[in-house]
Amino acid sequence: MVVIGVISDTHGLRRPEVHKALAGVDLVIHAGDFDDSETLDWIGTMGKLVGVRGNCDRGAWTKALPEHDLVTLEGHGIFVIHDLARMTLDPKAAGVAVVVYGHTHEPKNDMRDGVLYFNPGSAGPRREGRPVTVGKLQVRREGVVGQVIPLLASARGSG
């Protein structure tokens, strides 16, 4: 089994709760909107990192970040993109098991047409009362299971 920590939309906020929630993962996927190179480096301290560029990622440091990426683990394709609306790939036809995305700041863990669509939500500043979350994917030969992990106990506050 491979355990992937999934994070998105940090927007320059480096919450200590992220490191605790994703401790011991085999790989970290960041689905875009780091906002700055310091946050990219900070996420990278957790281990091997797969990251894509989000709409708020600008500047020379973003040239190393692709718009999308495809990782294969335990025989399962995991397609990573920031904004699901910009995806041109048909995941089912391409044999992709999981689509990881961000952008909406809303966590999702939905199976559609045999493909898991997983959005870890946002670990950055709270917006419009949405929760502050990250996620994990457990990847086994027989399939992939997603879990959304709340980082803050309450939906109150601006943190």
Features:
159 residues; mainly beta; Purple Acid Phosphatase, chain A, domain 2; 2 helices; 10 strands; 35% strand
Strands, helices and their partners?
Blueprint: E1 2-7, H1 16-21, E2 27-30, H2 37-44, E3 49-51, E4 68-73, E5 76-81, E6 96-100, E7 108-112, E8 115-119, E9 133-140, E10 143-150
Parallel strand pairs: 1-2, 2-3, 5-6, 6-8
Antiparallel strand pairs: 1-9, 4-5, 7-8, 9-10
How would you describe this protein?
This protein is mainly beta. It has one domain (2-150): Metallo-dependent phosphatases (Purple Acid Phosphatase, chain A, domain 2), CATH 3.60.21.10. The chain has two helices and ten strands. Strands 3-2-1-9-10 form a five-stranded mixed beta sheet, with helices on one face. The chain has a five-stranded mixed beta sheet with strand order 4-5-6-8-7, with no helix packed on it. The model has no long low-confidence stretch (mean pLDDT 95).
Q: Helices and strands, in N-to-C order?
A: EHEHEEEEEEEE
Physical arrangement of strands within the biggest beta sheet: 3-2-1-9-10
The CA-CA distance between the termini, in Å, is 34 Å
- Percent of residues in helical segments? under 10%
Mean of all residue-level pLDDT scores: 95
CATH superfamily: Metallo-dependent phosphatases
The major β-sheet equals:
5 strands, mixed
Give the number of helices. 2
Low-confidence segments, given as residue ranges, are: none
**CATH class term:** Alpha Beta
Give the beta-strand count.
10
Quote the CATH topology: Purple Acid Phosphatase, chain A, domain 2
Q: What is the CATH-assigned architecture?
A: 4-Layer Sandwich
Which structural class do you get from the secondary structure elements?
mainly beta
